[in-house]
Amino acid sequence: MRRAFAARLIPAGATLMTLPTHHLELLAPARDADIGREAVLHGADAVYIGGPSFGARTKAGNDVADIAGLCDFAHRYGARVFVTVNTILHDDELESARTLIGQLHDAGVDALIVQDMALLELDLPPIALHASTQCDIRAAAKARFLADVGFSQLVLAREMSIAQIREVRAAVAPEVALEYFIHGALCVAFSGNCYISEAHTGRSANRGGCSQECRLPYTLEDGQGRVVAFDKHLLSMKDNNQSANLRALIDAGIRSFKIEGRYKDMAYVKNVTAHYRQRLDEILDERPELARASDGRCRFGFVPDPERTFNRQSSDYFATGRKTDIGAFDAPTHVGQAIGRVSAIGRTHFDLETGETLANGDGLTWMHKREVRGAQVNTARVIDARHWRITPNQPLADLAAQGLAVGVGINRNVDRVWQQTLARKSAERSIDVTLHFTDTDDGFALTLTDERGASGRASIVCAHDPAQQAERANASLREQLTRLGNTVFSATEVTLDCRAAWFVPASVANTLRRDAVAALDAAREARRPRSCRRAAVEPPVPYPDTALSYLANVYNDAARRFYTRHGVQLIDAAFEAHEEAGEVSLMVTKHCLRFSFNLCPKQAKGVTGVQGQVRAEPMTLVSGGDRLTLRFDCKACEMHVVGRARPHILRTPAPGSAAAQHAALSGEAEAGTAASTHALHGKSR
After folding, report:
1. Is the peptide bond before 306 cis (omega within 30 degrees of 0)?
2. I want to staple 132 with a disulfide (CB 3.0 to 4.6 A). Which of 86, 269, 528, 660 is the partner?
3. 263 neighbors 57 (Cβ within 8 angstroms)
4. Domain end (from 527, 544, 568)
5. Closest CA to 156 of 147, 172, 168
């Protein structure tokens, strides 16, 4: 039976569950619910996680029951849980998506992160909607449109500069929160505008199956076939790190600070979340007009350092302007931190000059012929204050053939001691409360009040027996009342407000404490804002454009109805529909290889004898048998990677199409299509 939810939408102007304009939200990723809990304990104000299907990371799906448990845990700290439902959907998936969203709403999920506008045409529960980065929000007009149609939080494109963020903030209603990626891996393409994976492998990035073609090595040729760069990872970006720009981002209007990484392990999430928790807390201490988006203070058992977990080196991308050195061209992997140089080589060992402490099991790397080489440490022994003797897990002759030699710089990409630290309990998070104990006419009462003013009171009927030793009795009572270790609370102040010093049995104190904690939990839950979808502006506002190409990713009739209702007259099918048979832009990106190799005409501007000689002629990326043409839109300062789908991809019916359904019924569907469809529903290929 279909559930009627539309009537439960709240009217425009009513109080919404959204991020208050003075709150700063640290948003952490979770591959699973256990990682989500650790993200909260390490300082996240919100967590985003994938459900069992329709999330843009097919191998990071989770059961609804596990997500419900995470919601219960996070809500005790006032933290929120968002679920990704951000793939594009074909028509026969819409009802399944609607059913799933109802289940997620019932599980306590606070918001959905979505890409497909078809969802706005469905009868959904009153759950907040956030516009995914897959919506490619990099213009003020589009941001304003998405806010007007019912999105309460917008995930801006990673490529946006701080100046552009200010423009969006000025164009969008204040209560609509702006979210921005501050750390983690970078997709080289504008999110939602990459089709290389679909064209080459049939695995759609917009359907959660990206094969990461951008991390492969390519050779770059100029218009005359000359090699500009040979066998480098030319579409692989360094990781994002906005640590130095947090204050500027706040001033520009960002309120939700997002860490990338739903495929990352627990150590990464713990470390990076703790790092940004500390950075944001420093700002909150400086600026009392701002506040945390959730409750509690964190105490860490380690010193957070993003450089010590997986990264491809880092940049701030385009936040402060275009830069040449944003690519991880040499290696798309974690090279690690530079720690020293090889000082000597023996028959079974080598000596390393370093100021670091090493351990058995560490991973060491070095560069050789544009490739990362490495070995694991079997044993590490101190020689003196600056030297260690390393016995690796491979013969020295093999490592020498891979470039290990005296003078070679060594990095550490696996720090065993660090890993062991993060594998254990590494953080505590507690909410400060004050305790007020008083006597009543027929017993005693205890009131707990948290840092936001919520209170829970418990009372008990009990005889008043005078204490024989007042000071000792009061000290014992304080100790009993403050035993909050198995709760989320931590006592900062205890007031004993009694007419006399009473003897209070430990059992009475314990009962009062447990009941007061339960009452405070209930009071906090009652005060917690509930998920509610932002009401759309009526009558429907027009979309900024009247025509949409395949780049808009319209994959079903409901999405077409949505755009038609908002004034769009011409709507092309998504690339995944396989209607683009010729060469098209398989990737649109702000990353420009002409600029990276100092071949941009704008770089030559003002240089005598050079200006006008450098032309924006096509260049070519070559990988195996694939040749991708690069075209440069200098006015927009963008690069288009142009190609076509491989023939066998075009011959494969698009999932959900009439041809695919007919093939399935007749038993003629290709195994690859079945596997792909299986993967798109959250199952491993």
Report:
1. no
2. 86
3. yes
4. 527
5. 168
- End-to-end Cα spacing for the chain: 33
Maximum Cα–Cα distance across the chain: 99
Encoded tokens for 113? 């992160």
CA distance 19 to 125: 19
Which one, of 337, 278, 285, 329, lies nearest residue 307 by Cα? 337
Q: Which two tokens stand for residue 277?
A: 């928790």
* Average pLDDT over every residue of 241-253: 98
The single residue listed with the structure tokens 């936001």 is 452
The two three-digit tokens of residue 293, written as one number: 């988006």
What does pTM read for this prediction? 0.91
Residue at token pair 């990484």: 261
Q: Work out how many domains the chain is built from and give that number.
A: 5
Structure tokens of 540?
């429907």
How far is Cα 599 from Cα 593, in angstroms, rounded to an integer? Answer: 8
- With respect to residue 513, please indicate whether it lies within any of the assigned structural domains: yes
Per-residue burial over 280-297, b = 16 or more CB atoms within 10 Å of its CB, e = otherwise: bbeeeeeeeebebbbbbe
Instruction: Read off the pLDDT of residues 490-518 as tens digits, 9 standing for 90 and up.
Output: 999 999 999 999 999 999 999 999 999 99
Q: Would you state the pLDDT for residue 671?
A: 36
Q: How many helices (H) and strands (E) does the chain have?
A: 18, 32
* 299-301-306-309 Cα dihedral, nearest 10 degrees: -140
Whole-angstrom Cα distance, residue 265 to residue 32? 10
User: What phi, psi does 549 have (nearest 5°)?
Assistant: -90, -175
Rounded alpha-carbon distances, angstroms, from residue 249 to 252, 257, 291, 292, 567: 5, 9, 15, 16, 34
One domain, residues 357 and 412: yes
The token pair that represents 241 in the structure block: 């790190």
Domain range for 494: 427-527
Question: Is residue 115 assigned to a domain?
Answer: yes
Q: How many CB atoms lie within 10 A of CB 598?
A: 10
